[in-house]
Write a structure and sequence with these properties.
This protein is of the alpha/beta class. The protein is about 35% helix and about 25% strand.
């Protein structure tokens, strides 16, 4: 059995960590290297670094930030934002990334996923899937569906998110980072219906993102089929720590890697 993972996310703009709600109203949340070191020390299994303005500004992810973070930590690092060609992905791996997440460019040219897989391997090829519910608010009396949003959440595409996930995996995506646009930054919990639909549709590992505020939210996401939970605000704002989340998950019977400093990890 593969252990469940807890992954802090660093949304980066202009060399600083930022956080907003539904990808908007960004506020400063610190230095990426300092945050990365603190999260690794707290027991993070991996780290995700997303350049949230790279696609909209038509540039590649800030390689310098990736290098600086990699020099400071030893845990796996996923990097996304502004990846338009396989050369962009290779450049990020050369800078220290272990995996590369693609969103907008892959939707525009799906063969990009196959190209990254062929050159770097499926284990390095991550589909970053930002999904918004069709019709807006959740309606308990109707079957939900979701569409892909791109360009940092500024563009709705009309593309069905579940169908796109299936195609992306068939082309080479080895993992899916699924973010609910509706829940991002709200603290209302993950979109569990979205996670269940994706888990039923694809055989690859699924990272839940968007809306976490409590460990209970994370437990619900894991029960829905996610193999990892990603969060930002609750860690950035000091509402809890990675270590505390993992201790609570372990107490509820989840198989997680506990920090070495934890008494129950000895």
């Amino acid at each position: 059995m593969v252990r469940l993972r807890v992954i802090p996310c660093l949304d980066v703009k202009d060399g600083r960590v930022v956080k907003g709600v539904r990808f908007q109203g960004l506020r400063d949340a610190g230095d990426p290297v300092e945050r990365a070191v603190a999260y690794e020390e707290s027991g993070a299994d991996e780290l995700c670094l997303l350049d949230v303005s790279a696609t909209r500004e038509g540039r590649a992810s800030a390689v310098e930030t990736v290098r600086a973070v990699r020099a400071a930590i030893g845990i796996p690092l996923t990097v996304g934002g502004g990846v338009r060609r396989v050369e962009d992905a290779a450049r990020l791996l050369d800078a220290g990334a272990d995996k590369v997440a693609v969103n907008t460019a892959a939707l525009e040219r799906p063969e990009l996923l196959s190209e990254i897989k062929a050159r770097l391997g499926a284990q390095c090829t991550i589909l970053s899937l930002d999904a918004a519910r069709r019709g807006g608010a959740e309606d308990p009396d109707s079957s939900p569906s979701w569409e892909v949003v791109v360009a940092g959440g500024t563009q709705r595409t009309g593309t069905d998110a579940i169908q796109w996930a299936r195609l992306a995996v068939s082309l080479g995506a080895g993992e899916i980072l699924a973010t609910s646009w509706d829940r991002d930054g709200t603290g209302a919990g993950y979109d569990v219906e979205l996670l269940r639909a994706l888990a039923d549709a694809v055989p690859v590992p699924l990272i839940a993102s968007g809306g976490a505020r409590t460990t209970g939210h994370m437990e619900t996401a894991l029960d829905a089929g996610a193999s990892a939970v990603l969060a930002a605000s609750i860690f950035h704002d000091g509402l809890t720590t990675v270590s505390q989340v993992k201790l609570e998950l372990a107490r509820s019977g989840r198989d997680v890697r506990l920090p070495l400093s934890s008494p129950t990890a000895r």
